[in-house]
Specification:
The chain is of the alpha/beta class. The chain has helices at residues 2-49, 74-85, 97-111, 127-137, 164-196, 208-211, 218-238, 270-279, 298-309, 316-343, and strands at 65-69, 89-94, 115-119, 142-147, 200-205, 243-248, 293-294. The chain has one domain (55-336): Rossmann fold, CATH 3.40.50. The protein binds NADP nicotinamide-adenine-dinucleotide phosphate (NAP).
Length: 344
Amino acid sequence: MSCFMDQLHSVGGKSKILNALLWCIFGFGVVKATTLLLRATALILDLFVLPSVNYSKYGAGKGKYCVVTGASDGIGKEFATQMARRKFNLILISRTLSKLEALQKELQGKYGIDVKILSIDVSHDVPENYVAVKELCQGLPITVLINNVGLSHNCPVPFLETEEQELRNIITINNTATLLFTQIITPTIIETAASSKCRGLVLTMGSFGGLLPTPLLATYSGSKAFLQSWSNALAGELKEANVDVELILSYLVTSAMSKVRRTSVMIPNPRNFVSSALSSVGRRCGAQERYATVTPYWSHALQHWFIEETVGVYSRIANAMNLKMHKSIRARYLRKKLREEKKQ
Ligand SMILES: NC(=O)c1ccc[n+]([C@@H]2O[C@H](COP(=O)([O-])OP(=O)(O)OC[C@H]3O[C@@H](n4cnc5c(N)ncnc54)[C@H](OP(=O)(O)O)[C@@H]3O)[C@@H](O)[C@H]2O)c1
């Protein structure tokens, strides 16, 4: 009789454990599903429903200045143009003087704003460059800095075969120059924001190359991943000073750097990319899991969101797919180079 009772207790105990386990799995599933639903809703709202951000909070139309680096071409030129349209005066910093002069003339004529230009080569890590930046910016009411200047590899290349000069240029332009520009200009942004009772803004161009560790673009990938952590840390530091700091993530955009000329669903031109970026500052779009980061262009945003919600950006699968894609780009690049060499 007592043996029978023991068995009954043991079955009852097991079924209690099983029940508790099933409730845990159910609870976990509910939490996961709710999080996914909330993130999906936020993604849709950010991308397709919420109105464009109003730049009057950053002093638009009130004589304030916006600094754009790498402003003479591609995405930077478009940032300059679209900030001019929002009635910011501009300080444009880039390498080629003739391109800067042409853009200065065009924007001053079209939008009646003041445009100052500075031609420096930031691949040379020399103090004179930054003394010139300081002198140009002195006394100007700057509220926005757009850290856009950047360099990638000439083509996908194994890290061990990367030329030393290319490696040094990528780190100096993408990282050292960005840090120094920000250190020089941000104190003025803080002062201007405080005295004008508006907010300041520091935007930095990141990349999917930094979002996903990218084989055959290892140095570029590392330099952009550095900007992700640095920018997010700075966002925390500058919050109390009323300065918004945001990292902008992008997959390919047609430009001299990407060497892609034709637009597609996944590859916008700089105009459409920058329009989505400036409209979405302060929102997450595809970067729902990140602080102070935005993936603004709709197809890039859906891609980012899907990767994060499935395999994850640091997974073996994502790394292997990225390697395959860049191996194929390298093979095509080398075949084209060989054809051109044969022609000569
Ligand atoms: N295009 C893409 O697919 C893509 C994707 C993700 C992220 N991004 C990021 O977006 C940013 C802009 O890229 P983009 O495609 O617009 O590049 P881009 O068309 O090559 O333009 C780069 C700009 O930076 C300037 N610049 C380059 N090297 C410089 C140097 N040593 N000193 C001073 N200025 C220099 C260039 O001046 P010059 O006019 O003299 O050449 C140009 O104005 C970069 O940070 C890039 O990493 C681009």
